């Protein structure tokens, strides 16, 4: 499962964007590669096979590797920006911050969250993820964004380039997505 997360400012400018990758099936791979000491050579060959599959770009699941095709990756910013109109339509008729799943585009679902300052969080994903985990992801990222706003050196609508912010968003994604 792959995710594309972006934060859009009040002037419809991107403040932050990242392609998040699912590690949820990594435990299955780890249990496959961790065998008894009697089968060490077999586990070494499996691990080598997984590494070569990652290098060759095979179609199997590789943890931490994007499942979006190259053509889809190029469309993700467009898909996120095209959903801004839907978000702005719903923000006047809905008092909730979490707008939930607002659209679907060629199998890519789009969920949105609106902050109190009209900053938009948009998550594009290619799976049937539970709404509750996406809602929790948005709430934790909102808390992180509020902490960023409290920084006296950060101005609203400036790009967020902090490596700490990026790292914490990825940790939150690993927890919920």
TrEMBL record:
Signal peptide extent: none
Official protein name in the record: Trafficking protein particle complex subunit 2
Pfam families associated with the record: Sedlin_N (PF04628)
CDD domains according to UniProt: TRAPPC2_sedlin
Native species: Lodderomyces elongisporus (strain ATCC 11503 / CBS 2605 / JCM 1781 / NBRC 1676 / NRRL YB-4239)
Family matches, as InterPro entries: Longin-like_dom_sf (IPR011012), Sedlin (IPR006722)
A Gene Ontology biological process term: protein-containing complex assembly
Gene Ontology cellular component list: TRAPPI protein complex; TRAPPII protein complex; TRAPPIII protein complex
């Amino acid at each position: 499962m792959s995710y594309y997360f972006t934060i859009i400012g009040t002037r419809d400018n991107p403040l932050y964007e990242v392609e998040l990758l699912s590690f949820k099936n990594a435990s299955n791979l780890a249990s496959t590669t961790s065998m008894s000491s009697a089968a060490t050579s077999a586990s070494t060959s499996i691990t080598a096979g997984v590494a070569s599959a990652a290098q060759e770009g095979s179609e199997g699941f590789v943890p931490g590797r994007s499942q979006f095709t190259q053509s889809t990756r190029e469309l993700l910013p467009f898909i996120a920006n095209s959903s801004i109109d839907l978000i702005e339509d719903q923000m006047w008729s809905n008092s909730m911050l979490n707008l939930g799943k607002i659209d679907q585009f060629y199998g890519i679902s789009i969920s949105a969250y609106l902050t109190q300052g009209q900053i938009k969080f948009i998550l594009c994903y290619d799976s049937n993820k539970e709404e509750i985990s996406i809602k929790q992801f948005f709430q934790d990222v909102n808390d992180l964004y509020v902490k960023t706003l409290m920084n006296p050196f950060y101005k609203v609508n400036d790009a967020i380039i902090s490596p700490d912010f990026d790292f914490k968003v990825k940790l939150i994604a690993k927890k919920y997505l």
